[in-house]
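Let's practice the habit of predicting before peeking. Look at the sequence and jot down your guess about where helices and strands might fall. Then scroll down.
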Amino acid sequence: MISIQYYLTFRFERELYSKLYLKQLPNLTLEQSLVKFFKFFDLQNTGICYLKDWIKTIEKLGVYFSKAEETQEIFEYYDKNNTGYIDYKAFANEFCGKLKSTTKTNDPSFNKQKSKTGLDNFHHCIKDFGGQFILKLLKEIKVI
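Done guessing? Here is the structure:
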C-alpha cells in the first residue's frame, strides 16, 4: 500500500533533483552541492537543520511547498529518529544514494522492470486513494 507521504516524498524528490541538477555548483557532485546549500543556513556549523532552515534551503534551490502540512510530512519522512531535526549530510547522502540506485542502465530488462514497477505504484495510488489521488495529480500537472 502506498501512502500519501510516499507520494509527496516521491514528488518532492523528483522536483528537488531537477532543481539541484540545474544549480549544481561547479566541480562538485550533486551531493556536495546539496550539502553546501544547507551549510549556507547552518551558521553554527552543527551539521543539522530544523524544519525552518530545511524549508529555507529547499526554497533556495527552487522547490516551494504549497501546504504546510505537506512540508511537515516530507520533513518527518527524513527525520528518521523523530528528533525534530535532520542531519543534512545524511539527508544529502540518502537523497543522492537513491539517485544512484535508480539510474537507468542499458539493460532493457531493467528498464522494463522499472517501468512496470512505476505503473504498479501508480495503479496502487489510484486503488488506495481513488478520486483524491487523481484530483491531486491533475492539479499537480495543472490540468485543473
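How did you do? The longest strand covers residues 48-50.
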